[in-house]
């Protein structure tokens, strides 16, 4: 045929046609590209999640486990954060010095002491949480405990012994049994954190703002800060939590009061910055916790830690109470022991009830803190009126009815997470 082209094999083909190539739709191209990107992101996200999970599990497996006497109450509980009667978590801060010598010779200055002992209670309905601090020099009775060095041996009971020696005596499980006997609350989970862990946690959240009513210069802890507000992190944060002689009345009670201001600020930081809702930040915090803590068996699963963190995220700051276990001094002023008001704290924990502290009790205590002198930002008295023709704002969802807080006796000190208070310097 005239004008017909031939292929290499002699087969006839039609003449070339120009300008008849089928054009792709711009919209179709966009959607195909978007689908490809989404697919890549989805695969990448799954890979990141898988890596993060494996990394956290590997970190957990590198730490020795601890068995608590009452962890069996968690068996068959699908959501650890909704345990009947609430979840009680024992947090112990060890006085063991880091190996790098940043806080003294680890061979000379170290001691396996629970200088910080806190009971974190998360309500069953997640409507409130309490953090109860127990003074290190409080005299307690210690029940018989399993020997952490020999599972076939039982350690003898102790009477009127300082609380901070229990970790050395019988480990975390023994501290848990001691606090259980003291408060009447079962503790299924817990952990021990050392010096480096606190510094690393402050780094992971990007720093914590603290307030000092006076300048503090404490060579023993290494804290040197002027009056006012400071965002502290790393070893400065650790020094702030360690300082005893520099704040309040120079006692451990004063240190607890300043530690509570730090923890309240940490709570505000984690909620306001969306930390607990940010997977990247949450992973960083989980990594820090797992790398620097010895956790009980029930907390070996990182998913469990995340579920507890998300439950705490839902608690309103005004319903997170930091309470110092009420005590009175012995006649020689060397130790303290629980005051009659401790029964009210125990009862609230046992009955899963929120606690309320009288702010004047904290301000008036010799070891307490003072309210933030900085006036709050002025808020408009009333919202602007809706202009004619403009649509009205939607009706807000009614706030669920929450159980009323139990007002603790006037000698019980503390604060809630939404309160900004300032640590005072030790005048002595």
Automatic annotation (TrEMBL):
Residues 372-386 have a biased composition (Pro residues). The chain crosses the membrane at residues 30-54. Pfam families: LytR_cpsA_psr. The keyword Lipoprotein does not apply. InterPro entries: LytR/CpsA/Psr_CW_biosynth, LytR_CpsA_psr. Keywords: Membrane, Transmembrane, Transmembrane helix. It comes from the Bacteria. Gene3D superfamilies: LCP protein. The keyword Transport does not apply. Residues 114-271 form the Cell envelope-related transcriptional attenuator domain. Residues 1-20, 358-415 are annotated as: Disordered. Residues 1-16 have a biased composition (Low complexity). Belongs to the LytR/CpsA/Psr (LCP) family. This is Cell envelope-related transcriptional attenuator domain-containing protein. It comes from Agromyces humatus.
